[in-house]
Amino acid sequence: MGFRLAREADLDELVLIERGCPGAPQWSRAQLERGLRSARARLLVLEEEGRLLAFAEVAVAPPDAELTTIVVRRSEQGRGLGRAMLGRVVEEALAAGCERLSLEVGQANAPAAALYASAGFKAVGRRPRYYDDGSDAVLMDLALG
Hints:
Layout: E1 2-5, H1 11-19, H2 29-37, E2 41-48, E3 51-61, E4 64-72, H3 81-95, E5 100-106, H4 110-118, E6 122-127, E7 137-143
Parallel strand pairs: 4-5
Antiparallel strand pairs: 1-2, 2-3, 3-4, 5-7, 6-7
């Protein structure tokens, strides 16, 4: 199992992984492709024996970084891969010289919120009715270093 930067050849599979996960933001192929081509973004994948298991995107603009998504293939959930991806995102942000990592998580996404809290993220704000279903986004920050 290992991490690497995503390649264009991965994009269709990343879309399939996301579509298979209820509650994932459902980014389009075009949105993922923009992340792949962005000078600020790092689109990371976790693979095992050539099979993509999870991906994450982090936007870096030192001294800040923003985690925009983590998605784990539904059949692979429960193996700690989300935590592994989060750790890799932190490493990317630190390597880019970032001092803070921020994110937003849906208030109803208790597993993700618990993961972030266990990694040291603190809730710092809320965006009321941010998501299409009317639920709030919780803003969270992690001091790096």
